[in-house]
C-alpha cells in the first residue's frame, strides 16, 4: 500500500512528531538533548525554518515549525537525523534505526488552532507525569514563550505576538492558557491530525489547502478548538 503523502506549504506552521523505534528512548543523557537542539538550530538556519514551539521527551519529539521552502521541513528533519542517529549509535554502542519510520506531521491553521497546538506540545511533560511545573522542564520552549527565557531556537509567531503588545503582559496571557488542562476533545483532534497527516483547522482552511495543493487532504476531525478560557 502506498504511503500517504505529507503536506507542506511555505510559511504554514506544521506540527511534526517523531518517535523512537518501538517507542524506545532516543535521549539517554543531558548531553543528548543538548546535541539534538544544537543540530536542530543549525538545520533550521540552513533550511530557512522557524520553530515556534518544541518539546523533547524521552522517546519522542514534537515541533511546531514552518519554512519558507516547501521541502524545508523535510530537509531539516533529515539534517538532524543525519547527525543525531550516528551520534547516539556511537555514544551507546548501538546499531540500526533510531526512529519509528518517517516522522509524522500536520499543517496547522493560525488563531486558536496554533495556540492550542503550542499548548499540546509544551504540556507533554505534565501529561506524561514527568513534572508538575512546566517552567522546570528544561527541554521545551515553554520557559521561553511563557517567561521570556532566552532561547535562540525560538521564533515568536504572529498569533503569539498578538496576545498583547506589552511583552510582560503577553507572556502572562500565554501562561493563563495553561491554567487548565487541554480538553480531551482538543487532544483527540490534534493527535488525529498528526497521526493521519491531516491539516489541523476548520473546513475553510482545509479547502484552501486542497485548492493550493490541488489534491484532497482528508478530514481527521472537524470543529473549532475550545475557548482559551475554558481550558483550550
Task: Compile the SSE list and pairings.
Blueprint: E1 14-19, H1 30-46, E2 49-56, E3 60-67, H2 72-91, E4 104-107, H3 112-122, H4 124-127, H5 142-147, H6 158-161, H7 167-176, H8 184-196, H9 203-213
Antiparallel strand pairs: 1-3, 1-4, 2-3
Helix pairs in contact: 1-2
Q: What do these coordinates show?
A:
The protein has one domain (14-220): Alpha-Beta Plaits (2-Layer Sandwich), CATH 3.30.70. Helices cover 41% and strands 11% of the residues. The chain has nine helices and four strands; from the N terminus they run βαββαβααααααα. The longest helix has 20 residues, at 72-91. The model is unreliable at 228-232 (pLDDT under 50). It has a four-stranded antiparallel beta sheet. Helix 1 (30-46) runs antiparallel to helix 2. With 232 residues, the protein is an alpha+beta fold. The radius of gyration is 17 Å and the shape is globular. It has helices spanning 30-46, 72-91, 112-122, 124-127, 142-147, 158-161, 167-176, 184-196, 203-213; strands spanning 14-19, 49-56, 60-67, 104-107.
Instruction: Please give the radius of gyration in angstroms.
Output: 17 Å
Q: Work out the oligomeric state of the chains in this entry.
A: single chain
- Can you name the CATH architecture? 2-Layer Sandwich
What spatial form do the alpha-carbon principal axes imply? globular
The structural domain count equals 1
Structural class: alpha+beta
**Count of DSSP strands:** 4
Helix content: 40-55%
The CATH homologous superfamily is called Transposase IS200-like
CATH class annotation:
Alpha Beta
What's the N-to-C terminus distance? 37 Å
The low-confidence parts are 228-232
Q: What is the H/E string?
A: EHEEHEHHHHHHH
Widest beta sheet: strand line-up = 2-3-1-4
Largest sheet: 4 strands, antiparallel
Amino acid at each position: 500500500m502506498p504511503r500517504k503523502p505529507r503536506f507542506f506549504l511555505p510559511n504554514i506552521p506544521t506540527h511534526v512528531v517523531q518517535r523512537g523505534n518501538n517507542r524506545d528512548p532516543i535521549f539517554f543523557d543531558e548531553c543528548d538533548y543538548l546535541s539534538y537542539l544544537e543540530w536542530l538550530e543549525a538545520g533550521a538556519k540552513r533550511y530557512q525554518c522557524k520553530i515556534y514551539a518544541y518539546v523533547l521527551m524521552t522517546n519522542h519529539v514534537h515541533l511546531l515549525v514552518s519554512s519558507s521552502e516547501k521541502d524545508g521541513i523535510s530537509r531539516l528533519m533529515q539534517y538532524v537525523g543525519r547527525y543525531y542517529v550516528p551520534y547516539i549509535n556511537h555514544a551507546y554502542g548501538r546499531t540500526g534505526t533510531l526512529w519509528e519510520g518517517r516522522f509524522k506531521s500536520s499543517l496547522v491553521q493560525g488563531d486558536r488552532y496554533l495556540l492550542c497546538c503550542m499548548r499540546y506540545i509544551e504540556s507533554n511533560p505534565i501529561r506524561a507525569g514527568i513534572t508538575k511545573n512546566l517552567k522546570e522542564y528544561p527541554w521545551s520552549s515553554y520557559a521561553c514563550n511563557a517567561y521570556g527565557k532566552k532561547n535562540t531556537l525560538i521564533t515568536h509567531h504572529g498569533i503569539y505576538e498578538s496576545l498583547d503588545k506589552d511583552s510582560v503582559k503577553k507572556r502572562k496571557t500565554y501562561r493563563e492558557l495553561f491554567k487548565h488542562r487541554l480538553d480531551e476533545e482538543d487532544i483527540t483532534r490534534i493527535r488525529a491530525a498528526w497521526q493521519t497527516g491531516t491539516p489541523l483547522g476548520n473546513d475553510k482552511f482545509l479547502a484552501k489547502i486542497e485548492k493550493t495543493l490541488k489534491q484532497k487532504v482528508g478530514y481527521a476531525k472537524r470543529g473549532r478548538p475550545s475557548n482559551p478560557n475554558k481550558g483550550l
